[in-house]
Amino acid sequence: MRTLLYRFSGQRAAVASLAFLVLLALLAAAAPLVAWALGADMTAVDLYHRFAGPSLAHPLGTDELGRDVLVRLLYGARVSLAVGLIGALAASIIGTLVGLGAGLAGGRVDSIVMRFTDGVIALPLLPLLIVLAAADPTKLGLPPGFGRGSEGGLLRIGIIVALVGWTTVARLVRGAALSLREREFVLAAEAQGASRLRIAFVHLLPNAAGPIVAATALAVGNVILIESVLSFLGLGIQPPAASWGNMLTNAQDMMLSAPALAFYPGLLILATVVACNVAGDGIEAALDPRAETGRD
Amino acid sequence: MNRGLLTFIAARVVQTAIVLLLMSLAVYLLIGLMPGDPVDLMIAGDPRLTPDDILRLRAVYGLDQPLWSRYIAWLGAALSGDLGASRLYARPVLDVMGPFFLNTCVLMSVSFALSVIVAVPLGVWAARRPGSIADRAANAFAFAGISMPVFWLGLVLIIVFSVLLSWLPASGTGRGGGGAFDAVRHLMLPVITLTIHETGVLLRYVRSAMIETLRQDFVRAIRAKGASAGWVLWRHALPNAMLPVITIVALSFGGLFSGALVTETIFAYPGMGRMIYDSVMGNDFNLALAGLLIATVLTLAANLAADLLYAWLDPRIRIGGAR
Questions:
Q1: How far apart are CA A153 and CA A133, in angstroms?
Q2: Which of A270, A273, A295 lies closest to B131 in CB terms?
Q3: Alpha-helical regions (H) of chain B
Q4: Does A251 sit within 8 Å of B155, measured CB to CB?
Q5: What CATH number is associated with residue B219?
Q6: How does pLDDT run across B76-108, given as a tens digit for each residue?
Q7: What count of CB pairs under 8 Å joins A to B?
Q8: How many CB atoms lie within 10 A of CB A242?
Q9: A68 pairs with which residues across the strands?
Q10: Would you say the pTM of this structure is higher than 0.90?
Q11: If both were cysteines, with which of A39, A115, B104, B212 could B271 make a disulfide (CB 3.0 to 4.6 Å apart)?
């Protein structure tokens, strides 16, 4: 663990990315505080001060309804980070179970499961996600109000993304399980009569934890991107709740009059996703001593 | 052509057909989850319908049948070339889809070709000296390309090139008598958007595959024999590095289609992605179903082609038989 931290801290870009993500999370957590300090509300409409430039009262100006852009961005950060974490965690849990199962079972089961995984990876996911996001939850036997409201929306998007996002983790875990299965300590456990379940969760899982963590970190960035696309297309987080994606939907209509509105949310998505990817790469590199370290 | 290769091809084709069949069922069930059904839409559109009419309409459309028998009926019709009529356009689905399909093919193939042309040399150049300034620049570009939301990139390009500079049109195809030059001008922004994204994806894989290959013993052996750096790089390392890249390219085809959907929506470009989006939003069940299936067929075909190409390039695969 010490060496791990040391190896991670040796990568300046990864450390900076992690610092950025922590800062963003803190700011997002403080969103109500910022709103209170500025005397602005996320949804308070002020038609007399539309498209205002940056000022003391509105550090990043106001949007087409006179709402404070900074406050909305911070609330959007809450959405993006929450969906990113929920989606990535759910996806990695599914992926871990699938990968462990396939790796342990081996043989025919393994090859069928992995074919299926490859098939899901190759699919044009966005069109399918659009249909899923437009689906009527009552047809699945869920309560009519499911996925409405702000928390419900987060959960709904998290689930939808997890349904397609588990594949990378599954492949990684399956690979790790296959190679670990033949190692002496697993054979020893088997010889002592440990059940398959015990081998999977007590012996294989902790040893495969590294790649799982790295893949989850990388998945967070991906999930944030997918959430922003769905929200942009009007299928994700619904206004008046703010998300970086749906802020851009409105901004597209105002492109001619207020290009700045289209600038900030996109820049934040870009920065956040880059940070997740760089941090994830950093974790991966710290775990794998053979991975390239910049110098060959 | 030996027998091993033929068996391999046959096995892959059969496999693809099975996957396609399963996908059609999955997509059919998925579309069934969309809110309402065709008769609900008619009820909403015509207040004079009586409950008796509604029952009769449901029978006419087969909506009183269980789901699986509806799927079988649909599959039978689809296999004989009848995909039903589009609700939004009031024409057969196949007629509606033709032009959209063509537009998407143009957008995707041009962007794909451009991104290969940019990503391969750039990736090789970056991998030559990992950690150098060139490598870092290429890596940063790849990261930006992957992490940038495609729709935002499109918006920024529109703001810069259409709004501020007024060099290029922001939407449409220009197929309205503007001539070939105008059509190309309309294609430029969507193609640039999709190319930047796809280049980022490919660049990362080309670079890491090249770095991996350049570390292998055979490269050192060739170097030791006194081959020039360029000869080693392009003649020996690149072909070997291309094998894993081909697989990745095929797997990223679905992603390319997703990117095309977003690009088409931003630029109001009439392609398949935009058509699928509009049909889902407009409750056009037949059109959405057909669009999703065509997208799946395209992706599976790309995967199949990559598999066959791989087998042709790497004899170990075909001698080993179908894995």
A1: 10
A2: A295
A3: 3-32, 38-45, 51-60, 67-79, 93-128, 133-147, 150-157, 179-214, 217-224, 229-231, 238-251, 253-266, 272-281, 285-313, 315-320
A4: yes
A5: 1.10.3720.10
A6: 888 887 777 777 777 888 888 888 888 888 888
A7: 150
A8: 27
A9: A62
A10: no
A11: B104
